[in-house]
């Protein structure tokens, strides 16, 4: 069945992959594997090293993978392969007992998860015309956060009734099932002159990536966007990672309150993603991106200064949801607007590189929290958020020519 471009069924077939991969992110990367591995081994540094290593390894090859999709015209095929590889290694986590094998398979699964995202993002122009790409991106972002709301209670039930190892098999099965709409109905992205994969493409594309990086100073819109996105995502990544820990240590609410807060934030982010995706098409993606970056700054300041858990929760459900959903949603649309159609994968590879190496604030937060407390640590995240907003306002987006 061929679905019409811009039709809601086709947009849903693509955007449900956000729902699918967020199940992996929420259950495996954020919640259950860190608990499972640290309880099993008592080691934190191995987990941190594996997580950082898989992100950096993926970041290092993402520009090449995007360019490879541009050259071969097999974006969807590579996405399916990366997804299945991720799921295969994920299933193994339910049966492995050796800690070294556990952490190795976890890192490999994470690598393929991160790699799959560049192919997924590159398919956006295949399902939506420019006037609908913001809506499509927002729909995907919103469904991603809805995936957290769906998957965490289910994972908790499986953990209590079947045991923690089976949570990973369940996550793999759900990842596969909710990826099927994309596998079946999303069309392949067309390229003008597709080539068969050859070894020489490797060296050629690496050279082109470095040429693209060298050209960034001559293309301020793209350069400032990538810099701004790097700092904004850096602040967001640290905020998300430490969010529940901060709430627990500063306000001491009950466990149920923390769970409801996390579910509420993701539910709000679902709504924000849908609304801000529409707004990106209506008012311009860069305007929404700048607005979201300002929301991030204001929300971080308010969250760090309030003494009441209710206000902390209210800020998280409003400004926080707008910030995280808006930056991801409008950022993808801005990059599509800046990218020549024949190099969309290459540009998303570079975009993916900046998001995968956005880990500096996470480390700074932990150091400040240990030495000065959690409130000052959260205030430090305003600095990268400010740097990101400033860079985004310096991006002369409307008048900038593409490379």
Q: Keyphrases for this structure?
A:
mainly alpha, Growth Hormone, Chain: A, single chain, 403 residues, 83% helix
Describe this structure in words.
It is a single chain. The chain is mainly α. The chain has a single domain, classed as Growth Hormone, Chain: A, CATH 1.20.1250. It contains 16 helices and no strands. The longest helix has 34 residues. The two termini are 37 Å apart.
Brief digest:
The chain is mostly helical. The protein is 83% helix and 0% strand.
CATH topology: Growth Hormone, Chain: A
Structural class: mainly alpha
What is the gyration radius calculated from CA atoms? 20 Å
- How many structural domains are formed by the residues? 1
From N to C, what is the helix and strand string? HHHHHHHHHHHHHHHH
Tell me the span between the first and last alpha carbons: 37 Å
CATH homologous superfamily - what is it? MFS general substrate transporter like domains
Q: Count the helices. How many?
A: 16
Beta content comes to: under 5%
Based on Cα principal axes, name the global outline.
Answer: globular
* CATH architecture heading: Up-down Bundle
Main sheet record: none
Low-confidence stretches: 398-403
Residue-averaged pLDDT, rounded? 86
Assign the CATH class.
Mainly Alpha
Tally of extended strands?
A: 0
What order do the helices and strands come in, and which of them pair?
Blueprint: H1 8-41, H2 45-72, H3 75-92, H4 99-122, H5 124-127, H6 133-162, H7 165-185, H8 200-215, H9 220-251, H10 255-283, H11 285-305, H12 309-338, H13 344-356, H14 360-372, H15 374-380, H16 382-394
Helix pairs in contact: 1-4, 1-6, 1-7, 2-4, 2-8, 2-13, 3-4, 3-7, 4-13, 6-7, 6-10, 6-12, 9-12, 9-13, 9-14, 9-16, 10-11, 10-12, 11-12, 11-15, 11-16, 14-15
């Amino acid at each position: 069945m061929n679905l019409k471009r811009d039709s809601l069924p086709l947009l849903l077939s693509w955007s449900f992959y956000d729902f699918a991969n967020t199940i992996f992110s929420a259950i495996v990367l954020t919640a259950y594997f860190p608990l499972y591995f640290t309880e099993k081994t008592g080691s934190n540094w191995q987990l941190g090293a594996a997580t950082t290593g898989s992100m950096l390894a993926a970041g290092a090859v993402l520009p090449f993978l995007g360019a490879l999709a541009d050259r071969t015209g097999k974006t969807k095929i590579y996405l399916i392969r990366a997804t299945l590889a991720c799921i295969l290694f994920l299933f193994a986590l339910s049966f492995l007992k050796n800690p070294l094998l556990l952490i190795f398979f976890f890192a490999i699964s994470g690598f393929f998860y991160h790699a799959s995202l560049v192919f997924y993002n590159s398919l956006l122009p295949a399902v939506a015309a420019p006037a609908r790409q913001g809506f499509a991106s927002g729909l995907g972002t919103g469904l991603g956060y809805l995936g957290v709301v769906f998957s965490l209670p289910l994972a908790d039930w499986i953990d209590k009734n079947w045991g923690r190892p089976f949570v990973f098999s369940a996550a793999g099965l759900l990842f596969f099932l909710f990826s099927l709409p994309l596998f079946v109905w999303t069309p392949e992205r067309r390229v003008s002159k597709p080539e068969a994969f050859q070894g020489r493409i490797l060296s050629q594309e690496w050279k082109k990536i470095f040429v693209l990086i060298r050209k960034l100073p001559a293309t301020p819109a793209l350069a400032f966007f990538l810099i701004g996105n790097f700092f904004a995502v850096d602040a967001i990544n640290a905020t998300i990672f430490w969010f529940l820990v901060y709430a627990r240590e500063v306000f001491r609410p009950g466990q149920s309150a923390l769970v409801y807060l996390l579910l509420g934030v993701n539910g709000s982010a679902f709504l924000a993603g849908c609304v801000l995706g529409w707004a990106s098409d209506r008012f311009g993606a860069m305007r929404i991106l700048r607005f979201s970056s300002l929301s991030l700054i204001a929300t971080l300041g308010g969250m760090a200064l309030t003494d009441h858990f209710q206000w902390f929760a209210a800020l998280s459900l409003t400004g926080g949801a707008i910030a995280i959903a808006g930056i991801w949603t409008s950022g993808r649309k801005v990059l599509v607007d800046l990218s020549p159609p024949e190099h969309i994968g290459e540009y998303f590879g570079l975009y993916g590189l900046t998001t995968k190496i956005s880990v500096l604030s996470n480390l700074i937060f932990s150091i400040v929290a240990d030495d000065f407390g959690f409130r000052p640590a959260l205030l430090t995240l305003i600095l990268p958020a400010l740097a990101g907003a400033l860079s985004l306002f310096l991006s002369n987006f409307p008048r900038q020519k593409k490379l």
